[in-house]
Fold this sequence. Notes:
Layout: H1 4-11, H2 13-18, E1 33-37, H3 40-55, E2 62-67, H4 70-78, E3 84-88, H5 89-96, H6 105-120, E4 122-124, E5 134-139, H7 140-146, H8 151-154, E6 163-165, H9 167-171, H10 176-183, E7 192-193, H11 196-204, E8 210-214, H12 218-222, E9 225-227, E10 240-245, H13 246-251, H14 254-262, H15 268-279, H16 285-295
Parallel strand pairs: 1-2, 6-7, 6-8
Antiparallel strand pairs: 3-10, 4-10, 5-8, 5-9
Helix pairs in contact: 3-15, 3-16, 5-6, 15-16
Amino acid sequence: xxxxxxxxxxxxxxxxxxxxxxxxxxxxxxxxxxxxxxxxxxxxxxxxxxxxxxxxxxxxxxxxxxxxxxxxxxxxxxxxxxxxxxxxxxxxxxxxxxxxxxxxxxxxxxxxxxxxxxxxxxxxxxxxxxxxxxxxxxxxxxxxxxxxxxxxxxxxxxxxxxxxxxxxxxxxxxxxxxxxxxxxxxxxxxxxxxxxxxxxxxxxxxxxxxxxxxxxxxxxxxxxxxxxxxxxxxxxxxxxxxxxxxxxxxxxxxxxxxxxxxxxxxxxxxxxxxxxxxxxxxxxxxxxxxxxxxxxxx
Length: 298
């Protein structure tokens, strides 16, 4: 049943009400607060969730975007500084819950749903409808010249190519070290580590030859770059899912209605187009999301 989780939530209400640990601390504001990490797509999906809550009568939503990565968002969620944010299933599994990599999408969702509730009193909402996996991205002309289409095809050329990665990708268990081991990569020098917003600029300016980006990044299409196929299926699934504090759902049931309405509504093409509109066309993220919601009749 669509709102079955509300019945389950009621059964645990007493325990949640008595909970005195940090994870159950009330939000700093009486308004619903939505968080997001520090890159364009996160502001897009954070704004999408915020606008949906507002459209359903949840009042003016406070936005706390540009939080520096998954760990900071997790701490903000547990500490009650935000009520919800959108995470990716593979990130939740490996970086937050410290579970072994699992490449079965349904099993990953089931695992994180169980563990977030048991450990943190957090609900994992149904997927928004798109997956944003890590991707090794190369300039289109370079891909054509070297006949690069897959990560396996990159192996023989990697020693002459310079790689740039984000800070989180360098450290994650499903990140750089595992990728190098899975494919046997040896790049030219040590990978350069930089802010996510600088990766594609460096690639376009030929300061590097490869970047570790994300499959839904707007610049990939906008600049004619190519995301190489992960033909050995190294990366786990990264479906976008809302994470919501159960205590916040008790206070603000509209959060549950909002995440139910958004389930399955956002395709990879949708989010890539919104990312591009913000990044390349410099449109306001609120206007971009409003236009998307109008098209979807949300």
